[in-house]
Amino acid sequence: MRRDSIFYKLFQQCPTLLFEFLTYPPKSADLYRFDSVAVKEPKFEIDGVFLPPENEGAGVVYFCEVQFQKDEQLYERLFAESSLYFYRNRARFSDWQAVIIYPTRSIEQSDIHPHRTLLNGNQVHRVYLDELGNIRSLPLWVALMVLTTLEESQAPEEARYLLTRTHQEVPPTSSQAIIEMVTTIMVYKFTQLSRLEVESMLGITLQQTRVYREIKEEGIQEGRLSEAANLIIRLMSKRMGQKLSDEIVARIFGLPLPVLEDLSEALLDFSSLADLQVWLDQV
Predict the structure, then answer these.
(1) Which residue range(s) make up the domain with 21?
(2) pTM value?
Protein backbone atom coordinates (compact mmCIF):
# COMPACT_ATOMS: atom_id res chain seq x y z
CA MET A 1 0.00 0.00 0.00
CA ARG A 2 1.52 3.35 -1.09
CA ARG A 3 0.85 5.40 2.03
CA ASP A 4 3.18 8.27 1.06
CA SER A 5 0.86 9.54 -1.66
CA ILE A 6 -2.22 8.97 0.51
CA PHE A 7 -0.87 11.04 3.41
CA TYR A 8 0.37 13.70 1.00
CA LYS A 9 -3.18 14.01 -0.35
CA LEU A 10 -4.61 14.08 3.17
CA PHE A 11 -2.41 17.01 4.16
CA GLN A 12 -3.11 18.78 0.88
CA GLN A 13 -6.86 18.50 1.41
CA CYS A 14 -6.71 19.41 5.10
CA PRO A 15 -3.50 21.25 6.15
CA THR A 16 -4.89 21.78 9.67
CA LEU A 17 -4.87 17.99 10.16
CA LEU A 18 -1.31 18.07 11.52
CA PHE A 19 -2.32 20.36 14.36
CA GLU A 20 -4.94 17.87 15.60
CA PHE A 21 -2.02 16.04 17.20
CA LEU A 22 -0.56 19.01 19.06
CA THR A 23 -1.52 20.18 22.54
CA TYR A 24 -0.72 23.78 21.65
CA PRO A 25 -1.35 24.40 17.94
CA PRO A 26 -0.52 27.82 16.49
CA LYS A 27 -3.27 30.43 16.66
CA SER A 28 -3.20 30.79 12.87
CA ALA A 29 -3.30 27.04 12.19
CA ASP A 30 -6.04 27.43 9.60
CA LEU A 31 -3.77 29.73 7.57
CA TYR A 32 -0.80 27.35 7.33
CA ARG A 33 0.20 26.05 3.90
CA PHE A 34 1.39 22.46 3.32
CA ASP A 35 4.34 21.89 0.98
CA SER A 36 7.22 19.54 0.28
CA VAL A 37 10.68 20.99 -0.22
CA ALA A 38 14.13 19.99 -1.41
CA VAL A 39 17.30 21.14 0.33
CA LYS A 40 20.31 21.04 -1.99
CA GLU A 41 24.02 20.50 -1.24
CA PRO A 42 23.60 17.93 0.16
CA LYS A 43 20.28 16.97 -1.43
CA PHE A 44 17.55 16.34 1.15
CA GLU A 45 13.89 15.71 0.45
CA ILE A 46 11.58 16.87 3.25
CA ASP A 47 8.23 15.10 2.92
CA GLY A 48 5.97 17.57 4.67
CA VAL A 49 6.55 21.18 5.64
CA PHE A 50 3.78 23.35 7.09
CA LEU A 51 4.55 26.98 6.40
CA PRO A 52 3.12 29.82 8.50
CA PRO A 53 1.22 32.68 6.81
CA GLU A 54 3.65 35.16 5.28
CA ASN A 55 1.71 38.25 6.30
CA GLU A 56 2.23 37.66 10.03
CA GLY A 57 6.00 38.00 10.16
CA ALA A 58 8.35 35.24 11.29
CA GLY A 59 6.34 32.23 12.46
CA VAL A 60 6.88 28.60 13.47
CA VAL A 61 7.58 26.09 10.69
CA TYR A 62 6.39 22.51 11.26
CA PHE A 63 8.13 19.49 9.75
CA CYS A 64 6.14 16.27 9.36
CA GLU A 65 7.35 12.72 8.76
CA VAL A 66 4.98 9.79 8.20
CA GLN A 67 6.93 6.60 8.89
CA PHE A 68 5.41 3.17 8.28
CA GLN A 69 8.65 1.21 7.91
CA LYS A 70 11.53 0.70 10.30
CA ASP A 71 14.35 3.18 9.67
CA GLU A 72 17.22 3.02 12.14
CA GLN A 73 18.54 6.43 11.08
CA LEU A 74 15.25 8.27 10.76
CA TYR A 75 15.96 10.80 13.50
CA GLU A 76 19.49 11.48 12.22
CA ARG A 77 18.07 12.27 8.78
CA LEU A 78 14.99 14.17 9.97
CA PHE A 79 16.85 16.43 12.38
CA ALA A 80 19.64 17.07 9.85
CA GLU A 81 17.10 18.02 7.17
CA SER A 82 15.05 20.18 9.51
CA SER A 83 18.04 22.00 10.98
CA LEU A 84 19.56 22.69 7.57
CA TYR A 85 16.28 23.99 6.15
CA PHE A 86 15.72 26.15 9.25
CA TYR A 87 19.27 27.50 9.01
CA ARG A 88 18.87 28.47 5.36
CA ASN A 89 15.51 30.13 6.00
CA ARG A 90 16.23 31.60 9.44
CA ALA A 91 14.87 35.04 8.57
CA ARG A 92 11.48 33.55 7.65
CA PHE A 93 10.87 31.54 10.84
CA SER A 94 11.03 32.21 14.56
CA ASP A 95 11.14 28.53 15.59
CA TRP A 96 10.63 24.98 14.30
CA GLN A 97 8.82 21.88 15.50
CA ALA A 98 8.59 18.35 14.13
CA VAL A 99 5.80 15.76 14.13
CA ILE A 100 6.54 12.09 13.41
CA ILE A 101 3.55 9.84 12.73
CA TYR A 102 3.93 6.09 13.24
CA PRO A 103 1.35 3.31 12.88
CA THR A 104 2.70 1.78 16.10
CA ARG A 105 5.62 2.15 18.53
CA SER A 106 7.31 -0.97 17.12
CA ILE A 107 8.20 0.97 13.93
CA GLU A 108 10.17 3.63 15.81
CA GLN A 109 13.95 3.76 15.58
CA SER A 110 15.52 1.49 18.20
CA ASP A 111 18.43 3.65 19.38
CA ILE A 112 16.97 7.02 20.35
CA HIS A 113 19.47 7.84 23.11
CA PRO A 114 21.51 10.34 21.04
CA HIS A 115 18.33 12.34 20.47
CA ARG A 116 16.93 12.17 24.01
CA THR A 117 16.93 15.93 24.55
CA LEU A 118 14.81 16.65 21.48
CA LEU A 119 12.55 13.65 21.88
CA ASN A 120 11.82 14.34 25.54
CA GLY A 121 11.22 18.06 25.06
CA ASN A 122 8.28 19.92 23.59
CA GLN A 123 9.81 20.53 20.16
CA VAL A 124 9.35 17.05 18.70
CA HIS A 125 6.01 15.24 18.82
CA ARG A 126 5.65 11.50 18.22
CA VAL A 127 2.21 10.20 17.22
CA TYR A 128 1.28 6.49 17.32
CA LEU A 129 -1.93 5.99 15.34
CA ASP A 130 -2.88 2.76 17.11
CA GLU A 131 -2.90 4.63 20.43
CA LEU A 132 -5.30 7.43 19.44
CA GLY A 133 -8.37 5.49 20.52
CA ASN A 134 -11.39 4.06 18.76
CA ILE A 135 -11.49 5.20 15.14
CA ARG A 136 -15.18 6.11 15.49
CA SER A 137 -14.44 8.65 18.20
CA LEU A 138 -11.77 10.51 16.25
CA PRO A 139 -12.18 13.60 14.06
CA LEU A 140 -12.92 12.50 10.48
CA TRP A 141 -9.59 13.51 8.97
CA VAL A 142 -7.63 11.85 11.78
CA ALA A 143 -9.81 8.75 11.38
CA LEU A 144 -8.75 8.57 7.72
CA MET A 145 -5.14 8.26 8.87
CA VAL A 146 -6.06 5.43 11.21
CA LEU A 147 -8.05 3.72 8.43
CA THR A 148 -4.80 3.19 6.50
CA THR A 149 -3.47 1.05 9.38
CA LEU A 150 -6.46 -1.28 9.86
CA GLU A 151 -6.42 -4.94 8.90
CA GLU A 152 -8.41 -5.95 5.82
CA SER A 153 -10.92 -7.75 8.03
CA GLN A 154 -11.76 -4.54 9.91
CA ALA A 155 -11.25 -1.84 7.29
CA PRO A 156 -14.47 -2.23 5.20
CA GLU A 157 -16.83 -1.81 8.16
CA GLU A 158 -14.97 1.22 9.46
CA ALA A 159 -14.75 2.74 5.98
CA ARG A 160 -18.52 2.46 5.57
CA TYR A 161 -18.99 4.03 8.99
CA LEU A 162 -16.75 6.97 8.04
CA LEU A 163 -18.73 7.46 4.81
CA THR A 164 -21.96 7.53 6.84
CA ARG A 165 -20.45 10.06 9.25
CA THR A 166 -19.32 12.16 6.33
CA HIS A 167 -22.85 12.37 4.91
CA GLN A 168 -24.24 13.22 8.35
CA GLU A 169 -21.65 15.72 9.57
CA VAL A 170 -20.13 17.39 6.52
CA PRO A 171 -21.91 19.72 4.06
CA PRO A 172 -22.24 18.25 0.55
CA THR A 173 -19.93 20.94 -0.82
CA SER A 174 -17.11 19.72 1.45
CA SER A 175 -17.86 16.00 1.80
CA GLN A 176 -16.55 14.95 -1.62
CA ALA A 177 -12.91 15.31 -0.56
CA ILE A 178 -13.39 12.90 2.35
CA ILE A 179 -15.32 10.42 0.19
CA GLU A 180 -12.46 10.54 -2.33
CA MET A 181 -9.90 9.77 0.39
CA VAL A 182 -11.88 6.84 1.81
CA THR A 183 -12.23 5.47 -1.71
CA THR A 184 -8.54 5.87 -2.50
CA ILE A 185 -7.45 4.22 0.75
CA MET A 186 -9.69 1.21 0.16
CA VAL A 187 -8.67 0.72 -3.46
CA TYR A 188 -5.02 0.82 -2.40
CA LYS A 189 -5.68 -1.59 0.46
CA PHE A 190 -7.68 -4.10 -1.62
CA THR A 191 -5.72 -4.16 -4.88
CA GLN A 192 -6.83 -7.76 -5.50
CA LEU A 193 -10.49 -6.74 -5.81
CA SER A 194 -12.23 -5.55 -8.93
CA ARG A 195 -13.84 -2.14 -9.17
CA LEU A 196 -17.33 -3.63 -8.77
CA GLU A 197 -16.24 -5.53 -5.66
CA VAL A 198 -14.90 -2.36 -4.04
CA GLU A 199 -18.10 -0.54 -5.00
CA SER A 200 -20.15 -3.24 -3.30
CA MET A 201 -17.89 -3.13 -0.24
CA LEU A 202 -18.34 0.61 0.29
CA GLY A 203 -21.88 0.99 -0.98
CA ILE A 204 -20.92 3.80 -3.38
CA THR A 205 -20.36 4.15 -7.11
CA LEU A 206 -16.71 4.73 -7.85
CA GLN A 207 -17.50 6.15 -11.30
CA GLN A 208 -18.73 9.25 -9.46
CA THR A 209 -15.39 9.90 -7.79
CA ARG A 210 -12.65 12.26 -9.03
CA VAL A 211 -10.35 9.46 -10.18
CA TYR A 212 -12.89 8.09 -12.63
CA ARG A 213 -14.07 11.52 -13.78
CA GLU A 214 -10.51 12.51 -14.65
CA ILE A 215 -9.92 9.30 -16.55
CA LYS A 216 -13.14 9.88 -18.48
CA GLU A 217 -12.16 13.47 -19.28
CA GLU A 218 -8.99 12.14 -20.90
CA GLY A 219 -11.11 10.21 -23.38
CA ILE A 220 -11.09 6.86 -21.61
CA GLN A 221 -14.51 5.28 -21.25
CA GLU A 222 -15.87 4.76 -17.77
CA GLY A 223 -14.69 1.58 -16.04
CA ARG A 224 -12.30 0.48 -18.83
CA LEU A 225 -9.09 -0.05 -16.89
CA SER A 226 -7.37 -1.65 -19.88
CA GLU A 227 -7.52 1.60 -21.85
CA ALA A 228 -6.04 3.56 -18.95
CA ALA A 229 -3.20 1.03 -18.69
CA ASN A 230 -2.66 1.10 -22.47
CA LEU A 231 -2.34 4.87 -22.39
CA ILE A 232 0.37 4.71 -19.73
CA ILE A 233 2.20 1.92 -21.59
CA ARG A 234 2.23 3.99 -24.80
CA LEU A 235 3.50 7.07 -22.94
CA MET A 236 6.20 5.08 -21.17
CA SER A 237 7.35 3.30 -24.35
CA LYS A 238 7.57 6.61 -26.20
CA ARG A 239 9.50 8.23 -23.35
CA MET A 240 11.98 5.34 -23.07
CA GLY A 241 12.24 4.80 -26.84
CA GLN A 242 11.67 1.06 -26.51
CA LYS A 243 8.93 -1.49 -25.98
CA LEU A 244 8.12 -2.57 -22.43
CA SER A 245 8.63 -6.19 -21.49
CA ASP A 246 5.62 -8.51 -21.23
CA GLU A 247 6.21 -8.80 -17.47
CA ILE A 248 6.05 -5.03 -16.91
CA VAL A 249 3.01 -4.70 -19.18
CA ALA A 250 1.23 -7.39 -17.17
CA ARG A 251 2.04 -5.63 -13.90
CA ILE A 252 0.71 -2.30 -15.19
CA PHE A 253 -2.51 -3.97 -16.34
CA GLY A 254 -2.96 -5.34 -12.82
CA LEU A 255 -2.96 -1.90 -11.16
CA PRO A 256 -6.18 -0.24 -9.94
CA LEU A 257 -7.11 3.20 -11.27
CA PRO A 258 -5.77 5.28 -8.33
CA VAL A 259 -2.37 3.60 -8.71
CA LEU A 260 -2.45 4.13 -12.48
CA GLU A 261 -3.15 7.78 -11.76
CA ASP A 262 -0.06 8.01 -9.54
CA LEU A 263 2.02 6.19 -12.17
CA SER A 264 0.93 8.61 -14.90
CA GLU A 265 2.39 11.44 -12.81
CA ALA A 266 5.49 9.57 -11.62
CA LEU A 267 6.61 8.48 -15.11
CA LEU A 268 7.38 12.10 -15.96
CA ASP A 269 10.38 11.84 -13.62
CA PHE A 270 11.58 8.44 -14.90
CA SER A 271 14.85 8.44 -16.84
CA SER A 272 15.10 4.68 -17.43
CA LEU A 273 13.10 1.46 -17.26
CA ALA A 274 14.90 0.75 -14.00
CA ASP A 275 13.06 3.71 -12.44
CA LEU A 276 9.75 2.18 -13.53
CA GLN A 277 10.76 -1.21 -12.11
CA VAL A 278 11.66 0.35 -8.74
CA TRP A 279 8.35 2.23 -8.65
CA LEU A 280 6.33 -0.92 -9.40
CA ASP A 281 8.22 -2.86 -6.73
CA GLN A 282 7.12 -0.30 -4.14
CA VAL A 283 3.42 -0.55 -4.97
Answers:
(1) 1-131
(2) 0.68
